[in-house]
Amino acid sequence: MCREGGANFDAVYSFGEYDGALRGLIHLFKYSKIETLAQPLSRLLVRALPREQQFDMIVPVPMHWRKRWERGFNQAELLAQPLARRYGVKLSRNLRRRRYTRSQAALSEAERQRNLKDSFRVTHPEQIAGRRVLLVDDVLTTGATLRAAAACVKAAGAARVSALTLARVENREVRRTVAALAATGTN
């Protein structure tokens, strides 16, 4: 069982702000299920990483099997696959969702943290121990999902955990974005 607490990242990188064209591309990819956007969006992720950073494995933020079945794919995994190939490191599916959680999109930060409590597990901690791990996801809103995932990976013994996302919602925009997503019913 992995418990969240404090700042669980050693570093966080994002390509851009969750706004405008980037937001539109992410929505097409994620909600309109245009999987062919994974490759060009992954190239944007490469641009967000400092050249000097090195990782032993890349871990996409997992989806519960039921949510993956409903969507048809895990967007984080599709983004992470080209990164792993490019950097010649293992793509690990060692981080799993323990339980189905409500969509985070329309939840407040406190609700997101409660929603994710004990939701991740590492299946083989020995494969994570002592490693430099890069967690990959599409959007960093409040950071609750990535913090919970990072806490779990750190508890498994990772030496360093960094997070990489396509977009980051600036704090001043969190409430506006959450409200807009809630109004449209987007998950």
Tally of separate helices? 7
Percent of residues in helices: 40-55%
| Tally of distinct domains | 1
Report the CATH C-level class: Alpha Beta
Low confidence ranges: 1-6
Largest sheet: 5 strands, parallel
Number of strands: 7
Head-to-tail CA distance between termini = 26 Å
Summarize model confidence as the mean pLDDT: 85
- Topology order in helix (H) and strand (E) letters: EHHEHHEEHEEHEH
State the secondary-structure class: alpha/beta
CATH architecture: 3-Layer(aba) Sandwich
- Identify the strand order in the major beta sheet: 1-7-6-2-3
Oligomer type: single chain
In brief:
The chain is of the alpha/beta class and 187 residues long. It contains 7 helices and 7 strands; from the N terminus they run E-H-H-E-H-H-E-E-H-E-E-H-E-H.
Question: How would you characterize this protein structure?
Answer:
By secondary structure, this protein is of the alpha/beta class. It has a single domain (11-184), classed as Rossmann fold (3-Layer(aba) Sandwich). It has helices spanning 20-30, 38-48, 65-71, 75-87, 109-116, 144-155, 171-184; strands at 11-17, 57-60, 90-91, 95-97, 120-122, 132-140, 160-168. The protein has a five-stranded parallel β-sheet, sandwiched between helices. A two-stranded antiparallel sheet has the order 4-5. Strand 6 (132-140), helix 6 and strand 7 form a beta-alpha-beta unit. Helix 2 packs across helix 4. 38% of the residues are buried.
